Amino acid sequence: MNWLREHWRALLSALARVRSAPGGFVFNVVVIALALVLPLTGLTVLENLRPVARDLAVGPELSVFLSTDVARSRAQAIADDIRRQAQQLAVSIKLEFIDRDQALASMKAHSGLHDVVTALGSNPLPDAYVVRVAGGADSVSPGRITQLADALGGIDGVDTVQLDSVWVKRLAALVDLAGVVLWLLALTLCGVVLAVVFNTIRLQAYTQMEEISVARLLGATDAYVSRPFYYLGGLLGLCAGAVALLAVAGGLAMINVSVIALAKLYGSSFSFSPLDARSCLLLLTLSVALGVIGAGLSVRRALKSGD
């Protein structure tokens, strides 16, 4: 009970300090909230775009072109060789055979090159296989897809294997970019909150240094003296985090007016949604924790300088 009573008194003391200088407290909350709006907005946008990108992601494909002199029986038998190579690399695939005659007929019908193709006389197109990775891009690493392409190129009767290497490079670049952005957002969040809370609590401690010195002379421990400042830092973090989340939600509501209208033009119902309750609670907890840590660093330094 004594422990709870001490913490209750520390909380009341922190609230009394807020009431004594509400303007300064509100200003600091706004400063921290403005710093939090940018990373929180980025996080919210990323969370909304992630399922869209997953739906739009196209699975990697390999085009296996056979030599033009390969017999039809051998061309059809190559399918077993392709499946065997994929099985050895633990890659699940879907295989489609493209007959050279069908490919030529399609070219004549759709490409507008009917006269040119007819002038060639013989069919210049080879038989081909389209190898699609089952499960999409998330199921297999780009490295294994490259290994599969090299293995298929060594099959007897295969002339060329075309791999969408641009897709592989873009995928790797997007993954790296997303990781860098998330780290920068996290560092920005932590650094700004710690700096503002540290400076705020330090000023509070220095303005009350005489009161703190008297309390320590009367036997107050450093923990007793520091406790109200911890609660003050936590209140700063909590209020700033809540204001930032509300600001992001309000901004998304305004942006959604244009986003919904644009999405309708493409036959979509996409709109930005705020973070779910669990994510908001986690971010608020993180904001409070950073406020407490910043307050702890600041008050310890102030107490040491006051010795």
Indicate the low-confidence ranges by residue numbers: none
Strand order of the largest sheet: 2-3-1-4
The secondary-structure element order is HHEHEHHEHEHHHH
> Which percent range fits the helix content?
over 70%
Percent in strands: 5-15%
Round the Cα radius of gyration to an integer and report it.
Answer: 32 Å
Number of helical elements: 10
Average of pLDDT: 76
Whole-number tally of structural domains: 2
Q: Secondary-structure blueprint of this entry?
A:
Elements: H1 2-20, H2 22-56, E1 61-66, H3 72-88, E2 93-98, H4 100-110, H5 114-120, E3 128-133, H6 142-153, E4 158-163, H7 165-207, H8 209-217, H9 222-265, H10 277-306
Antiparallel strand pairs: 1-3, 1-4, 2-3
Helix pairs in contact: 1-9, 2-7, 2-9, 4-5, 7-9, 7-10, 9-10
Describe the structure.
- This protein has 307 residues and is α+β, with helices and mostly antiparallel strands.
- It has 10 helices and 4 strands, in the order ααβαβααβαβαααα.
- The chain folds into 2 domains: 2-56 and 171-306, no CATH class; 61-163, Alpha-Beta Plaits (2-Layer Sandwich), CATH 3.30.70.
- Strands 2-3-1-4 form a 4-stranded antiparallel beta sheet.
- It starts with a helix and ends with a helix.
